[in-house]
Amino acid sequence: MVFGLALAAPPGPMNAVIAEESVVRGWTAGARAGLGAMSADALFFVLAALGLVAFVEQFPTVQAVMVGAGGVLMLYFAYGAAQEMDTTFREAADPDEDSAGFTKAFVLALTNPYQILFWLTIGVGLLETGTVDVLAHTPYLGASLSNLLIVETGSPALILGFFGGIALWVTGFPAALVAAEQRVDSFAPAVAAVSAVVLGGFGVVFIWDAVQSLVFIWDAVRSLAL
């Protein structure tokens, strides 16, 4: 569970989507968005078990296109978050729009380079007998947390605990945000603004990364042709 929490909790594009949905439309929408992101992890897990994730690793062009698509989606969702800066979840939400959080998070998670990279490397290793340094793979802080928590891999208990930790975060995080919004009336616009900035920033970075990868691949192909 610590493994799942360590990967789900750090700030990033997925938590920005969950935060925006939570403070604008309430706990149900936030939890639904979180479950959308977790569903993508579950799909990646199945693909890893079938060997398809490792297959994708052999095609860097496909990876670059997926990263670029993720960047474009993040910019689009950042625009949507910016439009909701003057909204609170106490206001009546459109039920149809409320139900879109799951799809938004699911599609975004499928193109999130962090999740793709995890399942191309550590995620595949969860299925094999061995050990894994849990906190070393925490986004942004991994280097300073290495060797603090090492667990055995290849165990059903690890897989169940991993997804249990993610489930705990994607349901508890929206609850905490909703509770805070109820105490501070200006909390929702502030979270929407931060979500827009985070999504926009990650969107630009991912698009730039995709462009660099595609340029590198093109140069490599051209040099081989020459």
From TrEMBL:
InterPro entries: LeuE-type. Keywords: Cell membrane, Membrane, Transmembrane, Transmembrane helix. GO terms for cellular component: plasma membrane. GO terms for biological process: amino acid transport. It is found in: Cell membrane. Pfam families: LysE. The chain crosses the membrane at residues 35-55, 62-82, 116-136, 157-180, 186-208. Its main location: membrane. It is a multi-pass membrane protein. This is L-lysine exporter. It comes from Haloferax prahovense (strain DSM 18310 / JCM 13924 / TL6).
